[in-house]
Amino acid sequence: MVGDMTRFTNTPTEDLRKKALEYEVKGTLLNYLLSNRQEQEVLEARRKVKTVDDNIADIEKRYSETKTKLEEDIQKLKEGQESEAERLRKEYEDKLAKVKESYAASETKLKENAAAQDEKISKLVTERDEAVLSAGTLGEEKARLETDVTELQLYAATQYDEGFSFALEQIKLLFPDLDAERLGEADAMNQIVDGKLVPYIPPP
After folding, report:
1. DSSP structure string for 47-78
2. Which value, in Å, is the radius of gyration of the alpha carbons in the chain?
3. Distances (CA, A) of 109 to 21, 95, 105, 121
4. Distance, CA of 1 to CA of 5 (rounded, Å)
5. Which residues, by range, are in coiled-coil regions (predicted)?
6. If the chain, 204 residues long, is cut into consecutive pieces of 10 residues, what is the mean pLDDT of each piece?
């Protein structure tokens, strides 16, 4: 039975000393092994702690580098956006200036065209009024000329008829033996067709 001291009652002292020495050696060995084990565990724990510390340091380093790079990228992006915004603003202002310039030029051109059109319209109105006045004058002149032509035609016809009658009278005087009735058939308005006197028919 473990812990039963009666079993050592009859054991000689020398044997007890040997056993005590054996147990003392075993205890020392166990203490050494325990101490060594504890030292190994401490070293292992320290190694693990160092590994963790190294990992943490590496993580912190990479975090710091990543943070720095990210901040630099953000700054570059911000600068790029500001530069792009400035470029777009300048481009917009340039386009706006060109549009204003083009609008001003177009407005000036339209005003010039409008002025030219007004001048042309005024000139055309003047020419129209002059043409109307001239047309009225020409109408009066035409009527007067037509009247003159009619009068001249009547005068010419009268002169022709009188000349024809005078010629007949001269023939009667020069040739008294001619048949007066036959001479009476002569008329200024007759024409000779196929050797015969026929009334004059004006062309269609």
Report:
1. HHHHHHHHHHHHHHHHHHHHHHHHHHHHHHHH
2. 75
3. 127, 21, 6, 18
4. 9
5. 42-109
6. 56 66 63 70 84 85 86 84 83 80 77 82 82 76 83 79 77 74 69 72 67
Give the span between the Cα atoms of 15 and 22, in whole angstroms: 10
CA atoms within a 13 Å half-sphere pointing along the CA-CB vector of 198: 7
DSSP 156-183: HHHHHHHHHHHHHHHHHHH-TTS-HHHH
Lookup result for tokens 């010419």: 156
What's the rounded Cα separation, in Å, for the pair 49 and 8? 50
- Cβ atoms 183, 168 nearer than 8 A: yes
Residue type, 172: K
In the chain, the amino acid numbered 161 is D
The position carrying tokens 């166990």 is 30
Alpha-carbon gap, residue 62 to 50, rounded angstroms? 18
